[in-house]
Amino acid sequence: MDLFLQQLINGVIIGSTYAVVAIGFALVFTVLRVINFAHPEIFMTGMFAGLLAGSHISDNFFVVLIFGAIGAGAVGLTLERFVLRPLRGRDVLMTLIGTLGVAIMLQNGMAKFMSPDPVAYPKSLQVSLLLSDDIILTSTQAVNFIVSILLLAGVSFYVRKTRYGRATRAIAERPDVAAAFGVDVNRVSQVTVALASVMAGIAAVSVGILYGSAWAFVGLFYGLKAFICMLVAGNRYFEGVILVAMMLGVIEALVTGYVSSNFRDVAAFTILICVLYFRPNGLFGSYDT
Amino acid sequence: MWIYAYWEPVLIITLIHVIFTAGLYVTALSGQLSLATAAIAGIGAYCAAVLTTNFEWPFVPATVVAIIAGGLVGAFIAAITVKMRDFILKLTTLAFGEAVAVICFNIDYIGGANSFTGIPLFTSIWVALIATGLVLYVAWRFDGSRLGFASRAVRDDPLAASATGVSVLWVRMVTFALGGAIVGAGGSLQAHYVLIINPQELGFFVSLTFIIFLLVGGMQSLWGPVLAAVVLTALPEVTRFANEYRLILYGFVIVLVVLFRQEGMVTRIPTGRGSRLFNSSGATQKAAE
Q1: Which helix (H) or strand (E) holds A73?
Q2: How far is CA B11 from CA A155, A186, B129, B233, in A?
Q3: Looking at the 3D structure of chain B, how many domains does it have?
Q4: Are B95 and A272 an interchain contact pair (Cβ–Cβ within 8 Å)?
Q5: How would residue B278 be classed by pLDDT, with cut points 50, 70 and 90?
Q6: Do the domain assignments include residue B198?
Q7: pLDDT in tens, A100-135
Q8: What is the C-alpha separation between B174 and B32, in angstroms, rounded?
Q9: Partners of A119 in the beta sheet?
Q10: Residue of chain B minimizing CA distance to A281
Q11: Does A262 contact B33 at a Cβ distance shorter than 8 Å?
């Protein structure tokens, strides 16, 4: 029972980070019809922006968090203007290759200018044990989870209650009709990419603090999983993506705990094949191009 | 002579990449963009390497087995994906590739996570040149054959193609089998040159390299992807003087091609025996204008 609870906690925590990255994928894909494979690298850039702020300015938690957000947002906006916007409306696979080129540049650029190996992260938070001895839950894990949940709640509010959120949903439904009704698609794209990037940056900082290190190639780990979450859920309901990401985190943790960590990655792809076989548009529908 | 000694490995790897890309091109000719190239190559490589290493078979029969294995796997994937939509087909091949990688990772007979080692060296520059020549000849003849044009018809509109009497299932199975066979041969060549098979190299990101060659080169003729494979394999080597920047440059070149040459590098329309059948077709008219 202890093992089960422990893996459940671990799974929900990693799942909440998957969810933040997957929501970024889903938002950008829905509005721009571009599979943004550079998104996990924006996550990584945010992590390093936080690290630089932590080592040069102050290792206060909020300073690191804000600089992570600014760094990721700046990269995201540049990317939107020069790569994502020209790619809009092109074949989906071409968008994947183009953004993958950007991802290769960002990864190797960061490895060149920072370090190709993991770098120690500023210790902004005291690590302490929150639960009993049998089940481990540290304060950094809790903070990571709370940050992710706040971000996810924020994006849910944004999509349902704000003007840009309404425009996002309109574009998701019918881009041409939305444009005909006066939605400024360029502006919404900009806001969407900025939002997705800032969220990724903040989540990245909390992940960096949790694991105590930043790595130029960290994006690969989160990228593929988050992409699968978006595909399994479909991009119609963002809450669906969150749910699937959380569940994937839990399933992976349980597979690791009870079977073997080698089979952890099989879980994601088995789920993907099964879902696509029975529901070719994802569990909750959409992603038609 | 020392220049040649330095360039020989680059040349052999480039030729092997050309073989993989030619196989991928043949598969994609009927509209099936396979994201499992590395997995099929891996299956071919494992088959041939086990035969030469554990059973001391000569190189050529072992490679023939690899070719047959690749062809069977290709035909199998084509048969299960024939009814799927384009986007879902790509994802299924992706999931198939990842599943193969994980399964090989967990089979101890072929080394499992520790990689398969001790493979004898068979691939010399001459073997690679002859194999590449054969593969390009087969792919070129297929490209211009009646079946090649039937494949293009299936790619452009499966429904219309089947209405004019083309069997979509047959065409897709033949192209995927032929493409798989070529990729399997490439896998055998690679295994007997690199002398190690690492199950992690069977996954999505390696397959994506060849997709990049294909899309950067363009789908209009066989020579585009071949040129792209040569340029993009050699580019990181030619730019080795700028050691730390070369992968950044690699990503940059991909982004530039995707943004500014949508159709790929080579956009000449195909020629060949089969094209005589299509004198009144749109492609020929466009060439005449």
Answers
A1: helix A61-79
A2: 51, 46, 9, 9
A3: 1
A4: yes
A5: very low
A6: yes
A7: 889 989 988 998 888 888 888 888 777 777 776 677
A8: 12
A9: A214
A10: B88
A11: no
